[in-house]
Hints:
The protein is an alpha+beta fold. Among the domains are: 142 residues, Flavocytochrome C3, Chain A, domain 1; 152 residues, Fumarate reductase/succinate dehydrogenase flavoprotein-like, C-terminal domain (Methane Monooxygenase Hydroxylase, Chain G, domain 1), CATH 1.20.58. It contains 13 helices and 14 strands. The chain is globular and about 75 Å long. The protein starts with 34 loop residues before the first helix and ends in a 15-residue tail after the last strand.
Amino acid sequence: MAQGVPFAREYGGMLANRSFGGVQVCRTFxxxxxxxxxxxxxxxxxxxxxxxxxxxxxxxxxxxxDIVIIDGRCRGVIAKNLVTGKLERYGAxxxxxxxxxxxxTYFLSTxxxxxxxxxxxxxxxxxxxxxxxxxxxxxxxxxxxxxDKQSKLTLxxxxxxxxxxxxxxxxxxDAKKLQRGExxxxxxxxxxxxxxxxxxxxxxxxLVPRDVASRAAKERTDxxxxxxxxxxxxxxxxxxxxxxxxxxxxxxxxxxxFDMYQEITDVDxxxxxxxxxxxxxxxxxGLWVDYELQTSIKGLFALGECNFSDHxxxxxxxxxxxxxxxxxxxxxxxxxxxxxxxxxxVPHIDxxxxxxxxxxxxxxxxxxxxxxxxxxxSVDSIHKKLYHIMWDYVGMARNEAGLKKALAMLKDIRKxxxxxxxxxxxxEGLNTELDxxxxxxxxxxMGELIAxxxxxxxxxxxxxxxxxxxxxxxxxxxxxxHYMYVACWQYPGxxxxxxxxxxxxxxxxxxxxxxxxxxx
Length: 520
């Protein structure tokens, strides 16, 4: 509210709430169907106010390439000016990373294309522990993949599941006709529709958590009931809501989302059901931090999605809002004081120190190495191969054989990158392909971390589902006796060596740990 976000209100002026996946009460503040966008606009506006007041210095088109450690403490960063291509040095008594998650390891995700994990992975290489990387959230309501030329996927708000009903045909022949384009969703009568979430989870229906809804969609499409030409889509239908509430009332809630869907797909959701399918959306894993948000490197702090701290194995809707508020408003302004309290005698950090020289030389040498490979494959072509490995073997459902195969294939991908990637253009100045190649180098490392963690954690928990650990009816089966810990991974010093696993036990004193049941 302080940032000017126009949250929805009731008629009497009170803030309005609505349901989200995984809960049976209205607990979530919202701004029509674009809460995330409005939060970004509010954050940007507040940031620019501080820039205007001179309290914040903004460096646009600049990316962190490495952190600088002096006497065991993080004392600055090496950054790359993406316009000039020059490396720049910034010294500080402490460094805060708020660089987001690693969802773009999978190439196709709902994240912005510029999102990358380079800063976090470089911190990992310098000694920061990386925690729970296998906990990746897959969002069930995204516009399906429609070809091999896409560079990202579009998220349709989870709010749509409040009134939209998810279904596939009951009859396999109807599904085949849909896949061949012979009929449309509206042509299938009500009695021949399988509202599978309502059937399987009568207590929560279409508002089951995201991981449950995503796996259920995968199960139906794997069985051949997909509804588009690829067989990788299910319907999200508002026909019942139009009849119950009227088109005008429904449009007041979701009209902007209907418009966006029609712009992208050329299908009117008023006339034909939406098609949706799960996609990578959020990463619960991240840099390990303590209760003061400090990583295992003194003076290096991690906030938001780039740390592991708040979501555990699963993220429910709007939880990133909670983490952003808690980390940014209520934690770091106070815990940073604790760290800086004994640093008052430390003079301004000299960016001409030998440690800065060494870090910058290392970054420049790596840029030179990647640029000078001069192979025969584009960055995107290799990244797409990484995507298929990650989605097929380290995606919604994982198993031991698939994860071991993925790790072997990831080693081949790294070799292919190091021998065949080609960077067009000049090394100096603006070169987006060079920047993408740097990101891909780190995505490959991140992919290995996810796979190692998923292989080690032989249980199903939240966003991590092991096929060996499920109930008779296909639900996730936790193993609290053997896996009640945070998995922290330590860099071994070189990429070809498996990382070292450190375990931080989870000790719950005030709550009873139990399995949630979404069926009753």
